Amino acid sequence: MAHNITINTPEDIAHMREVGRLSSELLDFITPYVKAGVTTAELDRLMLDHTVNVLGCTSACLGYCPDGGTPYPAATCISVNHVVCHGIPSETKKLKNGDIVNIDVTVVKDGYFGDNSRMFIVGKPTIAGKRLVDATFECMWAGIEAVKPGNCFNDIGIACYNYCEKMGLSIVQEYGGHGIGKVFHSEPHVSHFPLKRETAVFEPGMIFTVEPMVNAGRRHIMNLKDGWTVVTKDRSLSAQWELEVLVTETGYDILTVSAGSPEAPEWVKGWKKPTFA
After folding, report:
1. Which end of the chain is less congested by CB atoms within 10 angstroms, N or C?
2. pTM greater than the 0.85 cutoff
3. How far is CA 183 from the centre of its chain?
4. pLDDT tens digit string along 145-202?
C-alpha cells in the first residue's frame, strides 16, 4: 500500500486487463445503436442484456447504493448534453441529431471491476459539441501522459487543467477519478485540477481511472432531485471520457481497451493501441 493505494499483483492485473477489455467491448457493442430516435432506456436495456448474456458479467451500477442513498436504478449512466454525469436512462429521453452523449459502464467479472466511458455524437455534430468532445478526449490523454513512476497524482490534475485553460473550457472539481480493482471506488481520488497539497507518488501496480468532466461554460454544477443526475448550473454542454490506467515500471498502460477503442491522439508518446485479432 502507498497512501492506502493498492499495489496490484500480476494476477490482479491480468484479471483487470480482462474485465477492462470487456467493459470496452460493451461500448463497442452499443456504438451502432447510438442514433437519433432511440431512447436512453433502450440503450440501457441492450447493454444490460449484452453484459449478462454475451460478456458473462454483471453491472456494477444496477442497484449501486453508496452511503445509504437512493439505489441507482439502471445498468449504465447515459448523460446527454448539459448532464455532467450519472444521467439515468429514461423511456422518454430520445436522442436527437447534434446531441453529445456520454455512456459510462462498469462491469464485474470474477470480483474485478472494469470502468469505462466514451462520448458519442448523434448524427451531424454541432461545432460547439464536437469541439468540446474532442478537447475533453485530449484533456484526458494529457493527464494520462503525466503518469510514470516518480511523478505524482497532482501531475494529472496540472496537465488536465492546463490543457482546458488554454481552450477556454472548465473542469468540474466535485468529481474525479478513483482507484479500482476488487473494489469499485477506492483510494486514491484522482483530481483533474491542481491541488494545493501533497499527493501520492505513482508506483508500478497502481490502477486508477482518469476521467475529466469538462464544461463548455463555467465549472459549477447542481444535483437534480432524483438523487443521481448532475447537470451544469449554467446549462452549458459537458463532456467526459474515462480510461483505466495501470502504472508500469516505465510509464503506464491502458486496461480498458478493445478493437473499437479510439486511437490515442497523435502526440501521445507513452502508449499505442494494441492490435486485436
Report:
1. C
2. yes
3. 16
4. 999 999 999 999 999 999 999 999 999 999 999 999 999 999 999 999 999 999 999 9
10-254, CATH topology level: Creatine Amidinohydrolase (3.90.230)
User: Taking the domains of the chain in order of start, what are their residue ranges?
Assistant: 10-254
Indicate the DSSP class of residue 228.
S
**What whole-number distance in Å separates Cα of residue 157 and Cα of residue 15?**
28
Tell me the one-letter amino acid at 186: S
**How many Cα atoms occupy the beta-carbon half-sphere of 75 within 13 Å?**
21
Please check whether residue 82 is in contact with residue 239, taking contact to mean a CB–CB distance below 8 angstroms.
no
